[in-house]
Structures are given as structure tokens and as C-alpha cells.
Amino acid sequence: MLPFSFATTAQILCETGASRRLAELCRERGAQRVLIVTDPGITKLGLLAEVLPGFISAGMTVQVYDQVLADPPEAIVLNAVAQAKALKAELIVGFGGGSSMDVAKLVALLAHPDCQQTLQDLYGVGNAKGQRLPLIQVPTTAGTGSEVTPVAIVTTGATTKLGVVSPLLLPDLALLDADLTLGLPPAVTAATGIDAMVHAIEAYTSALKKNPLSDLLAREALRLLAANLDEAVHNGGNREARQAMLLGACLAGQAFANAPVAAVHALAYPLGGHFHIPHGLSNALVLPHVLGFNASVAAPLYAELAPLVLGDSLRAGSAMDQTEQFILALADFSERSGLPTRLRDAGVPQAMLQQLAADAMLQQRLLVNNPREMTEEHALAIYQVAY
Ligand SMILES: NC(=O)c1ccc[n+]([C@@H]2O[C@H](COP(=O)([O-])OP(=O)(O)OC[C@H]3O[C@@H](n4cnc5c(N)ncnc54)[C@H](O)[C@@H]3O)[C@@H](O)[C@H]2O)c1
Ligand SMILES: [Fe+2]
User: What pLDDT is stored for residue 174 in this prediction?
Assistant: First the structure.
């Protein structure tokens, strides 16, 4: 067996309704002063309405920073840090999708009273030093898995993103409460759910760090996500399906936190950067085409995953036959959910494909994990087929 290392969030609480006990969970960690980091959509939806009263009745001080934008720019992080410092926050809660959770991670680091570092110092792998404030993550989308990853992604320029990767960013608690996701619109449910599936698939074929624990998590994640995505999209009020999606996304997050994602994400990032296509949809648009490209090498692994998505409808055949069925089944999720399935339908101009391929090559951090080597010519051909 190849040696491997595995790290994850210390505690995972998977319980429908548990966010109503958030104040208690913060107090158990010794905190009296808490900053909740979220986005304006979440406060408008009233998702904090049942969460905040617990803080007041416990005599705790709680503030909400609700200005997080999707694909958060640096200024948002710095504003949230300023509020946390002014509050003398003792614990940070990330409450929302990947954007809010990523900002919360950086606030927990930068608002620690002993922190000597700036945001600029943190970019890259292993650059964060010292301690962070206690950190609880409460996802309201079932997608990024940020509640269990050591990664925070920040938008640093017009079209560029940088990541902070450090074991210090692994939260203390991930709280998975389906009640918070009941109102997630169908298109967001579908896109974020497909993002989570991609995490599982890319972890399972990850070239450098694939390992027995991440495999186990990726398989169970994909089974849960594939079995519940249609129900979550078309009958969003189904708590069982919503809780299964949250767990699936969390397991997929643990898988890819330890066996990183690859070319689907490398080709998806430039779509988000240039056209602000949501992260999950960017992944969905290139997914079938990247898997098709990888199939000549990765078909045996895709064939292992195929029964988890297709169940009894998987027909017997070679690994390549079953890979084709697998790819079609994944593409069908987008189709059935009403997501655009071609780049042209998502507002991408054909004239930009060459630039996108050049930008995808900048994601070497991800491309090294791909089961098949990908050049700029390959990336261009994939975008052309996806167009
Ligand atoms: N840290 C990681 O490991 C990691 C991994 C992948 C992606 N990311 C980052 O995560 C971000 C994407 O996260 P995301 O896809 O979760 O989206 P998001 O956090 O950007 O949220 C998208 C939209 O969904 C809305 N929303 C969230 N929960 C809702 C709910 N329950 N009901 C109704 N609306 C709701 C939000 O208000 C927002 O408008 C990107 O910045 C990406 O770079 C991070
Ligand atoms: Fe992702």
C-alpha cells in the first residue's frame, strides 16, 4: 500500500434542525462573543431567524457580517476581519455556501489577537502560521464541502482567484442541517450538487494522492448524491433528500481535501473567472467532455463508480461501455435539472475558447492530479466540444 495522510474537520454534526442550537455549540467552546459570516441572500431569506434568538437568551454577544459576495474579493475578507476585531470575536461561524465559509476561515485566522500576518502572506500552501479563532461551519448549499476542506478561495483580480491552503483552516465543527437548504432554488441545488459529484469523481481518479480512505468517502458520497439529487431539485422540501445531499457533499469534500480535484475543476475555473458562471455550473458544463477525454486511461475507475450512479439500470459490458453509460448518466442530471448544457447557452463567446484553454493551463496545481496528461491543445478541443 502507498503511504498516505488524511486530515479532516474534528467534529461533524449531521442533524436536521441542529442549527437552532448554534449558540449552545458556540458556548460549549468557551465563546461569549461570536461573529457570523454570511451573504445578503441568506439574511434576506431569514435563515438566521431561528438561530439568533438562542444567542440573546444565553446572554451572548452575536453580530452578523452579511456582505459576502459570490467568489469573494479580498476587500470582503478584510471588511469581515475588521468587524471581527472590533467585536473582539472569540469564535467565527461561516453560515452559507462556499463563499461565506471560505471568508469565515480567513477571518478566523486574521482576526486572532496574536495574528501577525496579512491576507497577502497567506496565499499558497502552508503559509498560514500560528493560531486561529475557533471556527464552526454551517453550509446552506450541498456542494463545495468547504466545511471539511483546508482551503479558502479568494478573487484577487478581475478574473483571477488565489487559494489559501493550510491545515489551520480545517474547522472545529461542521454542522449539517437540512432545514437550512429546503429553500435552495432548483438551479442552485443542481449546480452545487453536481459540483459535489465532481469532487467525488475527481478524488477517486486523483493521480497523486488517491488513497483508501478518500476512495471510501468518494464512493459513498457519489451514491448518496446520485440517489438524492433529482428529489432535492424537483421536491426541494424533502428533508431526507436534503440531509442526504448535505452528507454526500461533506463526504465528497473530505475525499477531495485529501485526494485533490483535477481537470474538470481546472477547465471550470476560467469560466467562473471570465463570465461569473457559478462554480457548480462551470463544472457541469465541462464534466462529460473531460471524463470523455480521460476515459482512455481512467475507464476502469469510472466503471467502478458507474453502479453507484446507475444502479440496476447499468448494462453489462466492458469498462469503456460502462464508462460511456456513466458519462451519459451524469450529463442527464444537468439536462433534467434544466441547467444549460453547452457553453454557448451559458453566455460564453466562441472567440474566447483559446483564451480559456490558455487560462486552464495556469491551473497546474489541479492538472497534476488528472489521470491523463492534458495540454493546451487538449483543453481547447474539450472547450470546442463543450461549446
Ligand atoms: N474551500 C473549498 O474547498 C472550496 C471548494 C470549491 C469551491 N469553493 C468556493 O466556493 C464558492 C462557491 O460556493 P457555493 O457554490 O456554495 O455558492 P455561494 O456560496 O457563492 O452561494 C451562491 C448563492 O446561493 C445562495 N444560497 C446559499 N444558500 C442558500 C439557501 N439555503 N437558500 C437559498 N439560497 C442560498 C447565496 O445567497 C448565493 O447567492 C466559490 O467562491 C468557490 O471558489 C471553495
Ligand atoms: Fe468544486
Answer: 98
